Amino acid sequence: MPPASRDLVGRALSPFPQWPGDARLALSFVVNVEEGAEMSLASGDERNEAVYEVNREVVGAPDLCMESHFAYGARVGIWRVMDAFDAHGFKATFSSCGRCIAATPSLAAEPARRGHEISAHGWRWESHAGMEEARERAVIAATVAAIEKACGQRPVGWHTKSSASVNTRRLLMEEGGFLYDSDCYDDDVPRMHQAAPRPHVILPYAFDTNDMRFGPGGGFVQARDFSEYCIRAIERLLKEGASAPKMLSIGLHLRFIGRPARIGGLEAILEHVAKRSGIWVARRRDIAAHWATLV
Ligand SMILES: [Zn+2]
């Protein structure tokens, strides 16, 4: 039997949203900021990160090649990504790892200055599955503190890399200050967390409309592979959204989409969206706040 916490019923329990301006689709761009939070022996971690432009783990010694690949996102990619959003005045959610922001506060301060949301993406770039509870509590608190210090505002959103633990959502409640989390892949609309003592919204995220598929084995090669795939999802949900409004997340990574041959994929999506009516491009905190007042 699956655990009782699983809900495989779906839309029967979800109200259909009324987005601002009667939009048919709420569109959330999530920019993952992970550079410096990847596993690294040189940073005192138990192993090196194994996933970047290639899948290869250097064992027993610092991996300078992997470090340098991640650094590209922070040094170069972030500027291309921010400029692409600025060209249309669209605001995104920068989902940021605490260790990354503690070491390089400008990676949160500059997007915040441009009007983007800074949300929390763990301390290190790691799964929380099986993490000991006291450690996970400390990880959440440290991530919140690093972001608050860098941009003067607590994050209200959380997303765990890969799998959350069975305790994550409860620990977010205990930490306080959170309005939503994105540890959810099972719907095209948000929902309220029923067991929460105060309003907490669960926003769906996606691994398919995501530039991580430029990575090894992911299937995206050319910039248009990404833009065509995402535009297909946008158009499908716009159609369905005429009767039942929808939400879509598009995931981005500075070190992937920020490469010169790939940034055009994001630009093509933004240009398409700018010409289309019925789309509410919003930060996740705005979608969550809107949803929390609806239901
Ligand atoms: Zn991520």
Automatic annotation (TrEMBL):
GO terms assigned for molecular function: hydrolase activity, acting on carbon-nitrogen (but not peptide) bonds
InterPro entries per UniProt = Glyco_hydro/deAcase_b/a-brl, NODB_dom
What region holds the NodB homology domain?
Answer: 64-282
- Gene3D superfamilies the UniProt entry points to: Glycoside hydrolase/deacetylase
Q: Organism's domain of life?
A: Bacteria
Please name the GO terms of the biological process aspect recorded for this protein, alphabetically: carbohydrate metabolic process
Q: What does this protein do?
A: Is involved in generating a small heat-stable compound (Nod), an acylated oligomer of N-acetylglucosamine, that stimulates mitosis in various plant protoplasts.
Q: Which family does it belong to?
A: Belongs to the polysaccharide deacetylase family.
The name of this protein is Chitooligosaccharide deacetylase
Q: Upper lineage ranks?
A: Bacteria, Pseudomonadati, Pseudomonadota, Alphaproteobacteria, Acetobacterales
